[in-house]
Design goal:
The protein is about 55% helix and about 15% strand. It is α/β, with parallel strands linked by helices. It has three domains: about 40 residues, no CATH class; about 210 residues, 3-Layer(aba) Sandwich (Rossmann fold), CATH 3.40.50; about 55 residues, no CATH class. The chain has a seven-stranded parallel beta sheet with strand order 3-2-4-1-5-6-7, sandwiched between helices. The model has no long low-confidence stretch (mean pLDDT about 85). Bound molecules: guanosine-5'-triphosphate and magnesium ion.
């Protein structure tokens, strides 16, 4: 059944694509199997992520980008990622509403992924869905993620081009992003430039972003609901994502590093949960019978013997 779905996906069947994504969301084993099978299929679509704080206008901008790209006959897949829990309220509904006019366009495929359904880590699913959309023949794959934290950085590793969307009057928020996505974005957008204060954000960016491997990240000012103001952004997207040098190797290095650390982390946590020795070490350290350095050395020796030497 999976084989048949994959064939249909390859032929551009979006119902099959939708079904296969749902299966992959629920079943990790099938997900890995599908990805291993399609791995050698070259990535032909341009992968772009839009990230930034809540409410800056990411969905509004993507909606404009969609109309510009589809008017050129391009096929576009959109992935809406909501890392917030169902308790704090997600934005997916609002995002869908903002892109509603494209919902019936056969050139556009929109899919939402929420953390609530994917507690094991949303960025893992996102990267696999991107791969599948590329296999389905999309010319562009656009990912929207809310926030500027770890998830945004991880998603940016999978994309050719990452766009950080900001807006005027962001105050201290912008300073708080310093170590994260602010340093890795390829294009900076100051949306809502109809509101006063865009110059302040621009000045801050100019001071804090530098040239990377020959690419000077541009700062583009936009007004989300004004199509002509978004045209220069689309030009920059095309320029950056088609450059041979969009630092893809460097991004894949970041991706593999995160995936590897996750893998080791998982093994180590599983080991700690099961290990009776761990409980003993806890008691020993708590009662000053052993120092914590020795405890860790002993624990690692057991981890190496019991887990690492038995791993594939
Ligand atoms: N004044 C002004 N408002 C805008 C502009 N672009 C978008 N908006 C408004 O800003 C609000 C948020 O826009 P969204 O596109 O939903 O923002 P978002 O970043 O996708 O929001 P989340 O997905 O919740 O993080 C909406 O009410 C938009 O109409 C703009 O350029 N200027
Ligand atoms: Mg949105």
């Amino acid at each position: 059944m999976i084989e048949e779905l994959m064939d249909n996906v390859k032929n551009g069947d979006t119902i099959a694509l939708s079904k296969l994504i749902s299966i992959m969301e629920k079943d990790e084993r099938t997900r890995k199997e599908v990805i291993k099978k399609i791995f050698s299929c070259p990535v032909r679509g341009k992968i772009i992520c839009f990230t930034g704080p809540p409410g800056v206008g990411k969905s509004t901008l993507i909606d404009q980008v969609l109309s510009i790209l589809t008017s050129e006959g391009k096929k576009v897949g959109v992935i809406l990622v909501d890392p917030r829990s169902p308790y704090t309220g997600g934005a997916l509904l609002g995002d869908r509403v903002r892109m509603q006019r494209h919902a019936t366009d056969p050139h556009v495929f929109i899919r939402s992924l929420s953390c609530a359904e994917n507690p094991e880590g949303i960025s893992r699913i996102v990267k696999d869905v991107i791969k599948l959309m590329s296999f389905a023949g999309m010319d562009y794959i656009i990912v929207e993620t809310v926030g500027t934290g770890q998830i945004a950085v991880e998603v940016s590793f999978i994309c050719h081009t990452s766009v950080l969307v900001l807006m005027p009057n962001m105050g201290d928020d912008i300073q708080m992003m310093k170590a994260g996505i602010l340093e890795v974005a390829d294009i900076y957008v100051i949306n809502k430039s109809d509101i006063e204060g865009a110059e302040l954000v621009e000045a801050y960016l100019k001071e804090n972003i530098g040239k990377r491997n020959g690419w000077e990240p541009p700062i583009v000012k936009t007004i989300g609901y004004n199509r002509s103001s978004v045209v220069p952004l689309v030009e920059k997207l095309e320029e950056h994502s088609s450059r041979k040098n969009c630092r893809y190797d460097e991004k894949i290095k970041g991706l593999l590093t995160t995936m590897f650390l996750d893998h080791v982390d998982e093994l180590a946590l599983k080991f700690l949960k099961k290990s009776e020795d761990f409980e003993e070490f806890v008691k020993d350290v708590a009662n000053c019978r052993m120092d914590y350095y020795t405890a860790i050395e002993n624990l690692y020796a057991k981890f190496k013997k019991e887990v690492l030497s038995n791993e594939g």
